[in-house]
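Is N-carbamoyl-L-aspartate placement plausible here? Inputs below.
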Amino acid sequence: MLKGKHLLEPTDLSLQELEDIFNLADSIIKNPKAYLDCCKGRLLATLFYEPSTRTRFSFEAAMLRLGGQVIGFSEPNSSSVSKGETISDTIRTIACYADIAVMRHPKEGAPRLASKYSNIPVINAGDGGHQHPTQTLTDLLTIRSLKQNISNHVIGICGDLKFGRTAHSLVKALSRYKSMTFIFISPPELKIPDYIIDEVKGHQLIQTSSLEEVIPQLDILYMTRIQRERFFNEEEYLRLKGYFVLDNKKLSLAKKDMIILHPLPRVDEIAKEVDTDKRAVYFKQARYGMYVRMALILKLLGDDTCVKN
Ligand code: NCD
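Reply from A.M.:
I modeled the complex. Tokens:
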């Protein structure tokens, strides 16, 4: 039973619970109108202490498409946070008004702290350079929908693997599936942290700083942006930005059925010319993100039985 649970890391969900969420997302995709009233009278709170486009809007769109409503802030300075209110007090107050809360915060662990004081489900929408579980649900649903299954793939994860929370969550989640090969492609300065490598047990693992070298092997290429806001030093960011650029020339080396994912926003790591290639599925991926969040909200609120499949 997912009802009432928090989602802080992707592994908070069992493989069966993930499968149930994806199956529900599939049903919503097939017949979205059937779910129009499932969250009538419910309220979702979005607490965004850090900027966002996709994650916040997709949660809001998800709730609205389920017939629920949304409150929240996208800018902590417009709330009592600017007066020095603690996370524990903010969440305890929000829990008096809303049925479910989504939190993004620049500090690692902030949503976990909030969950300890909350009697409504708290969803981590990205905590610093740590985890981003609902982006991972998006990524997994995209892979499952476009590649038929999640297991048995060679995945290249490219970019800022040190600070990129989407990469961390994705690796953690994928390491529970069978026969994966992980190829981590990053500048040496932005290598994936050891605590994430520790998750990749029993799978093949390669680390490299050359995208060209490994692109022919990949079934999935997961591009990420260099995370400017996490650098301590602007010079270092400027030196590393532009390290990887996926363009048509590099793409010509890849398999014809490889898919390119990106959590977005993109800066310059994927050239615009790539967008028209059928392997570029990152905007489709954003749409899957909304459907999987609809399914997640329904499950955590226990409203998933409102439509009999
Ligand atoms: C990602 C994030 O916020 O971590 N964006 C998103 O949620 N889709 C990736 C990023 O900001 O680079």
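Short version: The chain has a mean pLDDT of 96.
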